[in-house]
């Protein structure tokens, strides 16, 4: 796959561009450039939009660079599936349902396996050997620049077919995965969190953001909360079937309890704590829009996401001296190593640490 520059609008502040995974030297040069930034959601890099930068970038990426108007990477070619392939896909999806995979995992695996079927249309999947599957994965990496996360999703979707549908032995596939970047979680200060979660005028929106931060919840966990999961007498929030299909408990703040009682009195939810317009679960996308409007209105870090509130909860708990094991339990982390990453964030501020330079 060739590198791509997405031609910036004259008023745009950044030039965005895509670097294929094999171009490691180019990526290192971009990392070293002042003001370069990586956008993980779009899988794109960006630098300041100046004539000098655009000229530098074209020289760096070489003659094969493509200049496009839209921020879209080349899509995998679409082919119609035959009736036999559709039957295989239906059997595959049914197996995932029977194994009680989450809705998100099922959608991801079915999408990746559909792509695998399209590529091998007309071939007997039962006769494909390990080398053929590794060749398919190598093509995705080299021509489409798929990330390490997507590589894992794709190979796991394929393995699921061979191991769970066909019942073949577990197989290891030798893939050239990129090293996973060790990024610190994005965290807001307590003052920023206070501004953000207090910004909404709508009581339901305010209560949802307070609950996400107050309990360190994931978006999917918030919308699955039932009225009965707020255990006010015991002082905790019960989270049923969280990530990894594990139940857990997290702290119920007294401030949050007062707010939730006001919310309950006004909205009177019957089953789900936060109901959508038709009485069903609140939509994750709607919750994310609530967060985005609050973040913009409160003028906090523009790169913050709803999950940033969970990161901030964990960091602030550790900062105030709560035992790391307790934080691990509240977050539902299986490994303490996952929780330990927040110890690299805490206390890194001018208010808590004095530079040795100030002593000179």
UniProtKB/TrEMBL annotation:
Belongs to the 'phage' integrase family. Residues 83-166 form the Core-binding (CB) domain. This is Recombinase XerD. GO terms for biological process: DNA integration; DNA recombination. Signal peptide: none annotated. InterPro entries: CB, DNA_brk_join_enz, Integrase-like_cat_sf, Integrase_catalytic, Integrase_recombinase_N, Integrase_SAM-like_N, Tyrosine_recombinase_XerCD. One of its GO terms (molecular function) is DNA binding. Keywords: DNA integration, DNA recombination, DNA-binding. Residues 183-358 form the Tyr recombinase domain. The keyword Nucleus does not apply.
């Amino acid at each position: 796959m060739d590198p791509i520059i997405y031609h910036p609008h004259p008023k745009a502040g950044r030039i965005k561009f895509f670097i294929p995974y094999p171009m490691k030297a180019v990526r290192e040069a971009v990392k070293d450039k002042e003001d370069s930034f990586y956008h993980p959601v779009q899988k794109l890099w960006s630098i300041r939009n100046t004539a000098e930068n655009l000229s530098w970038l074209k020289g760096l990426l070489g003659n094969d660079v493509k200049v496009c108007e839209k921020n879209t990477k080349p899509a995998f070619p679409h082919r119609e599936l035959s009736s036999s392939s559709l039957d295989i896909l239906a059997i595959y999806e049914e197996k995932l349902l029977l194994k009680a995979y989450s809705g998100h995992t099922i959608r991801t695996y079915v999408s990746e396996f559909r792509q695998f079927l399209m590529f091998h249309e007309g071939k007997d999947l039962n006769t494909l050997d390990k080398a053929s599957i590794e060749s398919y994965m190598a093509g995705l990496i080299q021509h489409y620049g798929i990330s390490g996360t997507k590589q894992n999703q794709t190979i796991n979707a394929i393995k699921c077919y061979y191991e769970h549908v066909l019942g073949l032995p577990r197989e290891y596939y030798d893939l050239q995965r990129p090293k996973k970047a060790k990024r610190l979680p994005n965290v807001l200060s307590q003052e920023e969190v206070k501004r953000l979660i207090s910004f909404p005028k709508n009581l339901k929106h305010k209560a949802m953001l307070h609950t996400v931060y107050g309990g360190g919840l994931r978006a999917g966990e918030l919308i699955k909360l039932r009225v009965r999961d707020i255990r006010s007498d015991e002082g905790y929030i019960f989270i049923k079937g969280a990530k990894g299909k594990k139940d857990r408990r997290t702290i119920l703040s007294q401030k949050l309890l007062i707010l939730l009682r006001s919310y309950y009195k006004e909205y009177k939810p019957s089953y789900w704590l936060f109901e959508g317009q038709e009485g069903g679960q609140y939509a994750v996308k709607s919750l994310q829009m609530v967060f985005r409007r609050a973040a913009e209105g409160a003028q906090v870090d523009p790169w913050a996401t709803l999950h940033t509130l969970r990161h901030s909860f964990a960091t602030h708990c550790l900062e105030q001296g709560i035992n790391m094991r307790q934080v691990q339990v509240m977050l539902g982390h299986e490994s303490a190593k996952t929780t330990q990453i927040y110890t690299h964030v805490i206390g890194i501020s001018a208010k808590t640490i004095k530079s040795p330079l100030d002593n000179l």
